């Protein structure tokens, strides 16, 4: 089963299989005052958000949300692609919409997510 490692200092999410990197993605992470929590979690839900706002605008969570077993935190897309690679979120892991959609297709609910400093 694949698993995910999020490296907060490099702001990279790695999709892993065993010791092999299958894919890597640039991510945005939590601000200093709302840091992304480190630890081991699981993906507990996957919710698509296809342009669901009036006027076809993206939600703040972009086109997809994957909730983590730590309540209130998740891996999601963004309506602000310039935030990727920066410390800007309230603790969630932000991805480009095309990347979070790609990742969501590759991992099932229950996938382990390891977030390291």
From TrEMBL:
**Active-site residues annotated for this sequence:** 76, 92
Q: Which GO terms describe its cellular component?
A: extracellular region
Listed Gene3D superfamilies:
L,D-transpeptidase catalytic domain-like
The UniProt similarity line reads: Belongs to the YkuD family.
For this UniProt entry, the molecular function terms from Gene Ontology, in alphabetical order, are: glycosyltransferase activity; peptidoglycan L,D-transpeptidase activity
| Statement: the UniProt record of this protein carries the keyword Cytoplasm | no
Protein name per the record: L,D-transpeptidase catalytic domain
Give the source lineage, highest ranks first: Bacteria, Bacillati, Bacillota, Bacilli, Bacillales
């Amino acid at each position: 089963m694949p698993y995910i490692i999020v490296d907060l200092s490099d702001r990279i999410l790695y999709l892993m299989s065993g010791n092999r990197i299958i894919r890597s993605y640039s991510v945005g992470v939590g601000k200093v005052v709302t840091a992304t929590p480190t630890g081991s979690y699981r993906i507990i839900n996957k919710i698509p958000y296809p342009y669901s706002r009036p006027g076809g605008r993206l939600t703040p969570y972009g086109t997809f949300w994957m909730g983590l077993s730590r309540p209130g935190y998740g891996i999601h897309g963004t309506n602000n692609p310039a935030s990727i690679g920066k410390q800007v979120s309230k603790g969630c892991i932000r991805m480009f919409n095309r990347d979070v959609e790609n990742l969501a297709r590759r991992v099932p609910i229950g996938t382990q997510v390891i977030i390291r400093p």
